[in-house]
Design the sequence.
């Protein structure tokens, strides 16, 4: 996204700062947690989480502001991530994102924003794998624009367009054995995971009865895999390439349940509907079997969160309880038994998650944190050699956070 970044730099250099000095407000948010992680009941070595966000928020005047941002994360616990059409198990991961956002504010509540940036994600399937050498390591360049109009405090509507491109630089050199591993004929060529995306998002925050508010969002993403050719019923690759369409609708309501002098209780309930349509098929060379529309699915997710705040209003201690339930139903992906033989039923994947978090202020900006997570994943597809359909996780972490 060199063009987007160049445009932002040009606009910043063109600003006429008048009526006072430039105001720079550094923003820092950091976490360091350590603990134990269990995957399918088996304890991993001592692991942890670390995150750091840095942003020297710069306000030139009442109209123009600039937000450079660095966001980095390390996750030292086992995780299952969907990158190729199903869950892949990774031992640990880290990601780093650099971005710049330029904001033009108007007196009527309108804000126009331009953003550009670059991100890196490194994923290790084994602990002895070197960083930056993973098969699914990826790089992401992005840019876009947004218009937001606010008519009251925390009440707004926004329309955004984003373009982003994701590349997998190591897949070309390491993919030679993927067909034999069962990934399918369609994923047997170099650079088949590289994709470009056009995303349009409409979002809003509006008031609700009972002093609550609702966050609403609708997103449409058009995704192109420029070097992933479609596979036909004979297992041959044709000239046409893969295209995906992703539609997402989400709504979440938040309300105060109790508001006292030293205690405040809030709850939120959310729902997300996701439909992925793909024109790509699947050809399993081990079973010599063709499965059309293999990657398309519909997913429904329900979430609930409770937050209890106690003590000082400006810096309270907090107790959080959150959970989610989801079902992902593939449109035409047939189930497989433990040996890989295809059946007649359609694959579904069910997931449940429960988390408890505690935060206690110990000094200005510093908090003691303790988190516990439990997750379950189940499916009527019993073939686990390719994707992780059946697993459970438990994570126990404790550490510190700092915010400025």
Sequence:
């Amino acid at each position: 996204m060199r063009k987007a970044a160049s445009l932002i730099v040009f606009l910043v250099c063109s600003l006429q700062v008048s009526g006072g000095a430039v105001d720079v407000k550094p923003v820092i948010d950091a976490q360091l947690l350590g603990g134990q992680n269990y995957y399918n009941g088996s304890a991993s070595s001592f692991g942890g989480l670390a995150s750091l966000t840095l942003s020297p928020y710069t306000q030139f005047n009442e109209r123009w502001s600039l937000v450079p941002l660095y966001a980095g994360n390390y996750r030292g616990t086992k995780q299952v991530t969907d990158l190729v059409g199903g869950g892949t198990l990774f031992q640990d991961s880290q990601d780093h994102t650099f971005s710049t956002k330029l904001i033009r504010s108007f007196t009527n509540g309108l804000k126009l924003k331009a953003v550009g940036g670059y991100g890196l994600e490194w994923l290790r399937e084994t602990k002895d794998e070197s960083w930056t050498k993973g098969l699914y390591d990826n790089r992401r360049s992005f840019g876009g624009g947004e218009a937001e109009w606010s008519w009251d405090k925390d009440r707004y509507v926004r329309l955004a367009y984003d373009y982003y491109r994701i590349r997998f630089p190591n897949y070309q050199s390491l993919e030679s054995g993927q067909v034999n591993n069962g990934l399918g004929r369609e994923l047997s060529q170099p650079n088949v995971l590289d994709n470009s995306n056009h995303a349009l998002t409409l979002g809003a925050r509006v008031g609700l009865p009972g002093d609550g508010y609702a966050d609403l969002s609708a997103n449409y993403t058009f995704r192109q895999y420029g070097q992933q050719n479609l596979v036909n019923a004979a297992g041959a690759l044709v000239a046409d390439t893969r295209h995906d369409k992703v539609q997402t609708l989400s709504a979440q309501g938040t309300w105060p349940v109790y508001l006292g002098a030293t205690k405040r209780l809030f709850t939120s309930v959310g729902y997300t509907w996701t439909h992925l349509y793909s024109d790509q098929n699947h050809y399993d060379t081990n079973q010599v079997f063709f499965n059309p529309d293999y990657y398309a699915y519909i997913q429904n997710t329900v979430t609930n969160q409770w937050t209890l705040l106690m003590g000082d209003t400006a810096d309270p201690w907090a107790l959080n309880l959150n959970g989610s339930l989801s079902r992902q139903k593939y449109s035409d992906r047939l189930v497989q038994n433990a040996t890989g033989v295809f059946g007649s039923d359609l694959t579904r994947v069910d997931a449940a998650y429960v988390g408890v978090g505690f935060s206690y202020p110990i000094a200005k900006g510093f908090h003691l944190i303790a988190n516990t997570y439990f997750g379950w994943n189940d499916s009527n597809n019993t073939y686990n050699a390719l994707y992780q359909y059946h697993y459970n996780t438990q994570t126990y972490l404790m550490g510190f956070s700092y915010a400025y």
